[in-house]
Amino acid sequence: MYSYIGRRILITIPTLVLVSIFIFTLQKLLPGDPILVLAGEERDPEVIAFLREKYRLNEPIPIQYFYWVSAVLQGDFGISLRTNQPVLELIKEKLPVTIQLAVMAMIIAMVIGIPAGIISAIKKGTMIDYVANVVALSGLSIPNFWLGIMLILLVSVNLGWLPASGYRPLFEDPIKSIETMIMPAFVLGTALAATLMRHTRSAMLGVLKADYVRTARAKGLYESVVVLKHAFRNALLPIVTLSALLFGELLAGAVLTEQIFTIPGFGKLIVDAVFNRDYAVVQGVVLCTAVGFILMNLLADIAYLFLNPRLRDQV
Amino acid sequence: MSSAATTIKTEMPERSQSRIWKKLKGNKSAALGFILVLFFVGIAILAPVLPIADPAGTSWSAIRQAPSAAYWLGTDELGRDILSRMIWGAQASLLAGVVSVAIAVLIGVPFGLIAGYFGGWLDGIISRATDALLATPFLILAIALAAFLGPSLTNAMIAIGLSAMPIFVRLTRGQVLSVKTEDYVEGARAIGLSHTLIIVRYILPNVFAPILVQATLAIATAIIAEASLSFLGLGQQPPAPSWGSMLNVAKNFLSQAPWMAMWPGAAIFLVVLGFNLLGDGLRDALDPREN
Prior knowledge:
The structure holds two protein chains of two kinds. By secondary structure, chain A is mainly alpha-helical. In chain A, about 80% of the residues lie in helices and about 0% in strands. Chain A has helices at about 1-30, 35-40, 45-55, 60-75, 85-120, 125-140, 145-160, 175-210, 210-220, 225-245, 245-260, 265-275, 280-305, 310-315. The radius of gyration of chain A is 24 Å and the shape is globular. Chain B has ten helices and no strands. Chain B has helices at about 1-25, 30-45, 80-120, 120-135, 140-150, 155-180, 185-190, 195-230, 245-250, 260-285. Classes of the chains: A mainly alpha, B mainly alpha. The interface of A and B includes residues 15, 259, 270, 282 and 297 of A.
């Protein structure tokens, strides 16, 4: 098993290298010469030559890549053009906000999606199953930024129950923090709830046909025990790994959700950076997201191995 | 031997085609999806000939008018007719959906075919590159690409297409791996057909079904992605109408003119639902286990 984990970690390395090459290439594809911008309006040839030397732009591209990767590995993602802050500092500042949003969204998604998937599977072919499927498909089809706008209109503008925007750190004022985050988390969670519901239903339908479930029923166990203890426990494995894989969707969804609810998180950071042409920040955010996603994939694979004893014997 | 094999290959798909069509026609959800898609495609195509107002025509005397007999869906902050902008916006959304998926398919499928068919180091390189692209969440990759390419509908379509491409590489590769060991491919190889001919004539038609399903579902995702990019200001640029950019403006007038936000979002929802229902229906109809 440990050799499998080792192999799996080794496979991650070329992917990480390719991701870094891809992100570095993006910067190189950028139209215009960044040195001319830095050199100011006078564009003194001596200053330009000095800056090219300083940023090692006279070196061949592979060497430039090597210097860039070395800096990134030491935590130097560059400096934000807009705020003059190191990019890593900005990321460290914004990431906890998005993590709070993502965790709350995931809880909401699980609370809605998993029970709905179980009920839909048990009641397969009935009206309940049909309605659950229609709701799930609608959840997948609603653009979450529109759902956010509609919720602001209903809950904040018309009813005045929750604030339409703003953010308060969790440890500063927990109640106010949850109050400002609950609506964005719901918006972000609904699409994931739909995905989770469809996967839970599919996993449960597969498990409910298994021999051990039939045996459990034949023993005369209560249906709730059969479903929850025998079927759901086994159906849970792919759901747990799927939840880890939904991390990417959460981050992508957070970009728009944070924009609508004016939450100062990771998503808003990338959008603001895009509009300010702050490419070092865009690069840093994309790189961190990709690395996070790759690590979540790796963890999901390892978790699956620990949760499923049959797999442990096979690898 | 070759002609016998061809006869079998041409007869079998016809039978299964009619079965698939029958199954698709009997699927009420897929039919609803098809009607929704047809409706939006219809209004997008007919936009230039429909008797509607100029989508860019402003009217200072009709700013933020609620829906009425004169303006069925109301007007926006510059007095432009929302119905007209919605109809022209359908063109941008559907065009973005179809073109970006076409880009993804036209680049992704050949790479998937090459990786799956030839295997070895070519497969290794293509697969690792695909993994690297798949490692970045779809929308974040599209935003980054659109940012580097510059804001416009064409660049948004390229960004979405490139971001959706790795899914088609992976899907096609997987399908090719299961098809290339089939007897008819071995037979084609044995009679000395070239690799290109084997791929085009024997492999591509047999991996086409899942690609078609994925393409239908990807159009839904691409429409949402285009709306998202336009909402962020990275897609269709004003004054040209797009559902996403209409929502971007509408969010600033929520309390004064809520109708400005309702219609574009509802349209995105319905057209995406249509493609999702159609894609689900196609998947059920084309799934051999279901047949």
